[in-house]
Amino acid sequence: MKKLILIVVPALLLFFSCEKDDTYPRIENTTRGEKWTLQIGSSPIQVYNQLQELGIEKKFGSVSIVYRKPYSKPEEIQNIFDYYRTITLETKSGVTERAVIGFNQNKVSSIETGGALLDPISAWPSNTSDENTIHINDQTDIVYQKLVNIWQISPYNDYQIILPDKLLEDSFDPDMANYDEWAFNFQDNISTNIVGRSSVRLFFDNGKLVKIRHEYNENEVVN
Fold this sequence. Notes:
Blueprint: H1 2-19, E1 26-30, E2 34-35, E3 38-39, H2 44-58, E4 62-65, E5 86-91, E6 98-104, E7 107-114, E8 118-121, E9 123-124, E10 134-135, H3 140-150, E11 159-162, E12 166-167, E13 181-189, E14 194-205, E15 208-220
Antiparallel strand pairs: 1-15, 2-3, 4-12, 4-13, 5-6, 5-11, 6-7, 7-8, 9-10, 13-14, 14-15
């Protein structure tokens, strides 16, 4: 009987020590079943639809395409251009110069240029002919052709094109299916001074969601 008690007591101590472990971050990997609205085995477009639902619940609005590289010319984004509300045109080397073009209701809604800090302007580039210049209120269907024309002019032919995170309120971009990792973040208010932050990676293999990696942290908010 004494030997049995000696075995049970350490086991109980181990159990309670695990229950009280509040170390962060906490990492959970889901490879079967589901996590939130996300279901293992779903196709990329199904996962995107599930993310749209989850985004409303958890109050986040975009998903990142991990390891998506910049594009070197407009032809590479021809078929996915319409799925994004902004594009960034940026120098590849030397001093960073950018032009960030925003779209709304099928028109150019904003143009900003600069380096670290951006200033709004009405047209870009400023040193090209009018037919090769993107203007505020240009229809999006002519912007692509203007980009093709601009890329024939130095120094813009050495720029790169960067797409932003994918806004969940917009339609699924079929090119997302070519990437094996997506990512998103959200946070919850645990108490008046504690915020829970979640960083999530989605892993795909052969066109199916195979793993959901959830890293969770809690931080004190100091006012």
